[in-house]
Specification:
Elements: E1 3-7, H1 11-23, E2 27-31, H2 34-44, E3 48-52, H3 60-68, E4 78-82, H4 87-95, E5 100-103, H5 108-132, E6 133-134, E7 141-142, E8 146-149, E9 155-158, E10 162-168, E11 171-176, E12 181-184, H6 188-194, E13 200-204, E14 207-210, E15 214-220, E16 224-229, E17 236-238, H7 243-250
Helix pairs in contact: 2-3
Length: 252
């Protein structure tokens, strides 16, 4: 039975959603404020989180920020509920990493459809990761040559075809040699745990590159470096923090 966490300060709305999801066959956890919701999410690791935006104390945006900063909760699908329909609010919620957004009042069918969609995509990703990786402790070892990435629809992409990855606001953009750019809800540190160390190296807080596509390295401003990759018609900058590591790895 899939587990849904509902974070909503309005008691009647919270109870109505709980009854709707219970009748639909889900296990339901509820929280009346953001602080309680964050604690329940960390303790129970729900399959989907439904969260109101305007709440006393910690609002929905802060809830999403806090959950996105934790490795154990950052990949949980997150659906915002709000009475605000302005595009600025919609844009902010999605930029912070929300997976979906429903404006109150919403139809029961719309909420159930949103949950089903998120569960379906998460199931595909989880299935692939379970088949592709083994995790002894914190170390993750690649077992096969492909991973499933979240796209629309999700696509299978060979690790060897990934040229580089950039990250922003809890999401990663994955650039492949066939010209694809896929959006994945994954942090840089999660990629570092997954990708084979003999091929991939982090060159910036927000960038990982595949050295199999390395074309050349040049010196850059303030004793840093720039990396050119085959298939990419622009250089990628190595930050000052990661320059010593890259120099040692590439012996430059």
């Amino acid at each position: 039975m899939e587990k849904i966490l509902v974070i909503e300060d309005n008691s009647p709305v919270r109870d109505n959603i709980k009854q709707l999801l219970y009748k639909a066959g889900y296990e339901v956890l509820t929280a009346e404020d953001g602080n309680e919701g964050v604690k329940l999410a960390a303790q129970n690791l729900p399959d989907v989180i439904i969260c109101d935006i305007i709440m006393p104390g910690m609002d929905g945006y802060d809830v999403l920020k806090q959950l996105s900063s934790s490795r154990v909760t950052s990949s949980i699908p997150f659906i915002f509920l709000t009475a605000m329909a302005e595009m600025t609010d919609l844009r902010l919620g999605m930029e912070l990493g929300a997976d979906d957004y429903l404006v109150k009042p919403f139809k029961a069918g719309d909420l159930l459809k949103a949950i089903k969609t998120r569960l379906g995509k998460r199931g595909l990703i989880t299935k692939s990761e379970n088949e592709s990786f083994q995790a002894p402790g914190r170390e993750t070892v690649l077992k096969t040559s492909s991973v499933i990435l979240a796209g629309n629809p999700p696509e299978v992409l060979r690790v060897s075809s990934i040229i580089y990855i950039t990250s922003s606001q809890g999401y990663s953009s994955v650039f492949s040699k066939d010209g694809k750019k896929l959006l994945v809800r994954k942090l840089m540190r999660e990629w570092e745990e997954i990708l084979p160390e003999d091929s991939f190296i982090r060159i910036h807080n927000s960038t990982i590159v595949n050295l199999e596509y390395l074309e050349r390295v040049e010196k850059w401003f303030n004793n840093t470096l720039r990396i050119y990759l085959n298939g990419v018609n622009y250089p990628l900058e190595v930050s000052k923090r990661y320059t010593p590591r890259v120099r040692a790895r590439l012996r430059v």
